[in-house]
Design brief:
The protein is of the alpha/beta class. It folds into three domains: about 5-280, 3-Layer(aba) Sandwich (Rossmann fold); about 280-435, Orthogonal Bundle (Isoleucyl-tRNA Synthetase, Domain 1), CATH 1.10.730; about 440-490, no CATH class. The protein has 17 helices and 15 strands. It has helices at about 45-65, 90-100, 100-120, 135-145, 160-170, 180-185, 225-240, 250-265, 300-305, 315-325, 335-355, 370-380, 385-405, 410-430, 435-440, 440-460, 465-475, and strands at about 10-15, 20, 30-35, 65-70, 150-155, 155-160, 200-205, 220-225, 240-250, 270-280, 280-285, 285, 330-335, 480-485, 485-490. A four-stranded parallel beta sheet has the order 4-3-9-10, with helices on both faces. The relative contact order is 0.11. Bound molecules: adenosine monophosphate (AMP) and zinc ion. Zinc ion binds near residues 35, 230, 247 and 255.
């Protein structure tokens, strides 16, 4: 495979507040961690957008020839309501309301998450660890932070001492929050909390008697803090210092700020070189969120049954719609915008499908080389997919002109152009050719016709064992062959 990793790739780093030239810690290798979903309800399209941004980034790194280890966790414990240290565990609450086991909730929504991502043609991460599978690692980190004097135990719970940490480190360096402002703006403790200061956050919480998701620890039967899970899993699989950590913009504070504090407190070094944050998908100008009811579920697009949609849409059209925006821009969802994307998507795919049929000439009136460079430049400028898509459309325009006999392309340039456009559209953007997706029935009948032909040949050779086997095995998968005077036909049930 061709390696492109020597190109200069710039990535916006939330930590430095600017686009930095990306340099992997170990040449040719990348470690990337992305905060996964809390599996207590169906993922909505907003969640899908964030994971899609990182899927596109993962795909591009792979295309560039990097060996990348992509870790995306499943949060199956410890994420409390309101992202705070008090309140019910989101998964336990759902289990209580549905009267099922917490792990049934986890299973149900992990399956939903995977099915959804598959429908949108996501690549699988390299490792998908669960928080509950890493309780031991979390307990070890807490012990270290206590030993370093940066966490305290009180009534069976352990809290991170933010003020103490800030004496020697900079709490707020990622989110740009100032500790003085934080002290000023945080609600005073209501007397119910064990924390010394309201800025402190839980590393371990003692479980109340009714809290069913609990594990033994040196401090109490309890459960780990949400922020700690990601520190434990990223450190375990990517090391104490790795290349990229991503997540939605809403996780920058407090989640990622706390991850930095925990890692620096326990390992003494900054855990991540590049912090990446994907921006929000909004609906009617408001953040799509489960808690407010302002959301669309992925399945709504496939059925079209939603007050927000005029008709069903293909997953690739939705994917195209999202990638038409830069991952760091807010994207507002609307049916009209989606309809416009559908038109654009169809035009793109149609042009790609026309490539094989284009007439070739002696000259090329299109600078394939500089167009190819423009495509890479777009992606190398902080994964600018809208610019990439604009470049793809300049090729579409040219393809249509060749098709209409208005201009020409040589055979060699056509091969190069086809390969580039296919790479960017299908490998990097992860779109799928709907023609080849939707015509599943055509593919099936073509395949059965091949088997019918083989069976006829077997019969002609008097190999009745084989011909019967073909008939019986097709029947077993619900395809019935019928021999008639005009040959063999088939029906499916
Ligand atoms: P959660 O399951 O709530 O932890 O969210 C999973 C991921 O989806 C996180 O990275 C969130 O930042 C992201 N997310 C949540 N809401 C939205 C939204 N409206 N648009 C984009 N990303 C979102
Ligand atoms: Zn996380």
């Amino acid at each position: 495979m061709q390696l492109y990793q020597n190109q200069e790739l710039k990535i916006y780093n939330s930590l430095t507040g600017k686009k930095d030239v990306f340099k992997p810690i170990s040449e040719g290798h990348i470690g990337m961690y992305v905060c996964g979903p809390t599996v207590y309800s169906n993922v909505h399209l907003g969640n899908v957008r964030t994971f899609m941004s990182f899927d596109m980034i993962f795909r591009y790194f792979k295309h560039l020839g990097f060996k990348i280890r992509y870790v995306r966790n499943i949060t199956d414990a410890g994420h409390l309501e309101n992202d705070a240290d008090d309140g019910e565990d989101r998964i336990a609450k759902k289990a209580r309301l549905e009267q099922i086991e917490p792990m049934e909730v986890v299973q149900m929504y992990t399956v939903d998450f995977h099915n959804t991502l598959n429908a949108f043609n996501f690549l699988h991460p390299s490792i998908e660890p669960t928080a509950t599978g890493h309780i031991i690692e979390q307990i070890e980190i807490i012990k270290t932070i206590i030993d370093k004097g940066l966490a305290y135990q009180i009534n069976g719970s352990v809290y991170f001492d933010v003020l103490k940490y800030n004496e020697t480190h900079n709490y707020g360096k990622l989110s740009g929050r100032n500790i003085e402002d934080l002290i000023h703006n945080t609600r005073a403790l209501d007397g119910q909390s064990d924390k010394k200061n309201p800025q402190d956050f839980a590393l371990w919480k003692k479980a109340e008697p009714q809290h069913i998701m609990r594990w033994p620890s040196p401090w109490s039967d309890g459960f780990p803090g949400w922020h700690l899970e990601c520190t434990a899993m990223s450190t375990k699989y990517l090391g104490e210092h790795f290349d990229i950590h991503g997540g939605g913009m809403d996780l920058k504070f407090p989640h990622h700020e706390c991850e930095i504090a925990q890692a620096e407190a326990s390992n003494g070094q900054s855990p991540v070189n590049v912090w990446m944050h994907a921006n929000m998908l909004t609906l009617n100008g408001q953040k799509m969120a489960k808690s407010t009811g302002n959301y669309i579920l992925p399945n709504d697009f496939f059925t079209g049954e939603s007050k927000h949609l005029s008709k069903p849409f293909n997953a690739s059209v939705v994917r195209f719609f999202m990638l038409q925006a830069h991952y760091r821009s807010i994207l507002d969802f609307s049916n009209d915008a989606l309809l416009a994307s559908e038109k654009g998507f169809n035009k793109l795919i149609e042009a790609i499908n026309d490539l094989a049929k284009l007439p070739v000439g002696n000259t090329t009136d299109f600078d394939v080389k500089s167009w190819n460079n423009n495509c890479y430049n777009a992606m190398n400028d902080d994964f600018n997919t809208p610019i990439l898509i604009a470049e793809l459309f300049s090729a579409v325009k040219f393809i249509n002109q060749v098709k209409n006999g208005k201009t020409s392309i040589t055979k060699e340039d056509l091969t190069t152009l086809s390969s580039i456009i296919n790479t960017f559209v299908f490998d990097v953007l992860g779109l799928q050719n709907i023609d080849s997706c939707d015509d599943g029935s055509d593919k099936l009948s073509d395949t059965v016709e091949v088997l019918i032909k083989l069976r006829a040949e077997a019969r002609a050779n008097k190999d009745f064992a084989l011909s019967d086997k073909i008939r019986d095995e097709l029947l077993a998968v619900g395809i019935q062959l019928k021999d008639g005077k005009d040959g063999t036909s088939f029906s499916t049930n």
